[in-house]
């Protein structure tokens, strides 16, 4: 897990896919100056003085990203100026296969430094939440009131009672799922209705296996 900064301000989460590349959401970086981005890794504290910042040299977002259409293909990668050095706290995520099947209502985990309420401030320490996959058909019905269409390249997840889920600043962060071989990253935090964690509107994620 990494924290992504833009012009010195925390803006999104991301995950390590190699020593030089970070996976995040396209809406975090769309039409922004790549040289203004940096990341920190290897810490659960959102303190830029704890770990050395690594500047970003290149931003690439999905060629079919649609900013005004449900954030379709909401995925991007950041290339680092300096390669990371792996240790016990800095490791790459496992990526799923294209055929990865995620059962409805499967337990997943998300993490990030996002706010704990809408219009709040970022959390100083990394937070984790346990969510369950919501069938796309149910998610699509919920978001139809916003004229959003949930795509096959999306995953949705939430909790039965609400009150837990992604919020501002969690965008770009990972959703992971336990399978037979480990904890692959199956989703990237994309968007959700407000207020955060609404029981009527599951969070929406970019499905990594379709990206």
TrEMBL record:
<dbReference type="InterPro" id="IPR001254">
    <property type="entry name" value="Trypsin_dom"/>
</dbReference>
<feature type="domain" description="Peptidase S1">
    <location>
        <begin position="1"/>
        <end position="211"/>
    </location>
</feature>
<keyword id="KW-0378">Hydrolase</keyword>
<dbReference type="InterPro" id="IPR043504">
    <property type="entry name" value="Peptidase_S1_PA_chymotrypsin"/>
</dbReference>
<comment type="similarity">
    <text>Belongs to the peptidase S1 family. CLIP subfamily.</text>
</comment>
<dbReference type="GO" id="GO:0004252">
    <property type="term" value="F:serine-type endopeptidase activity"/>
</dbReference>
<dbReference type="InterPro" id="IPR018114">
    <property type="entry name" value="TRYPSIN_HIS"/>
</dbReference>
<keyword id="KW-0720">Serine protease</keyword>
<dbReference type="Pfam" id="PF00089">
    <property type="entry name" value="Trypsin"/>
</dbReference>
<dbReference type="InterPro" id="IPR009003">
    <property type="entry name" value="Peptidase_S1_PA"/>
</dbReference>
<keyword id="KW-0645">Protease</keyword>
<dbReference type="InterPro" id="IPR001314">
    <property type="entry name" value="Peptidase_S1A"/>
</dbReference>
<protein>
    <recommendedName>
        <fullName>Peptidase S1 domain-containing protein</fullName>
    </recommendedName>
</protein>
<dbReference type="InterPro" id="IPR033116">
    <property type="entry name" value="TRYPSIN_SER"/>
</dbReference>
<dbReference type="GO" id="GO:0006508">
    <property type="term" value="P:proteolysis"/>
</dbReference>
<keyword id="KW-1015">Disulfide bond</keyword>
């Amino acid at each position: 897990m990494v924290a992504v900064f833009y012009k010195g301000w925390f803006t999104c989460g991301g995950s390590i896919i190699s020593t030089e590349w970070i996976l995040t959401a396209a809406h975090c970086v769309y039409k922004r100056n790549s040289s203004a981005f940096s990341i920190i890794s290897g810490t659960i504290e959102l303190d830029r003085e704890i770990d050395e910042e690594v500047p970003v040299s290149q931003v690439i977002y999905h060629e079919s990203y649609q900013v005004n259409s449900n954030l379709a293909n909401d995925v991007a990668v950041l290339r680092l100026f300096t390669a990371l050095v792996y240790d016990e706290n800095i490791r790459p995520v496992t990526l799923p296969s294209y055929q990865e099947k995620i059962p409805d209502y499967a337990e997943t985990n998300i993490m990030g430094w996002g706010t704990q309420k809408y219009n709040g401030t970022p959390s100083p320490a990394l937070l984790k939440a346990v969510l369950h996959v919501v069938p796309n058909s149910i998610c699509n019905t919920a978001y139809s009131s916003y004229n959003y269409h949930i795509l096959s390249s999306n995953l949705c997840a939430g909790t039965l009672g609400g009150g837990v889920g992604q919020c501002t600043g969690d965008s770009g962060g990972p959703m992971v799922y336990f399978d037979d071989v480990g904890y692959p990253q199956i989703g990237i935090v994309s968007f959700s209705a407000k207020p955060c964690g609404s029981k009527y509107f599951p969070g929406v994620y970019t499905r990594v296996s379709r990206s």
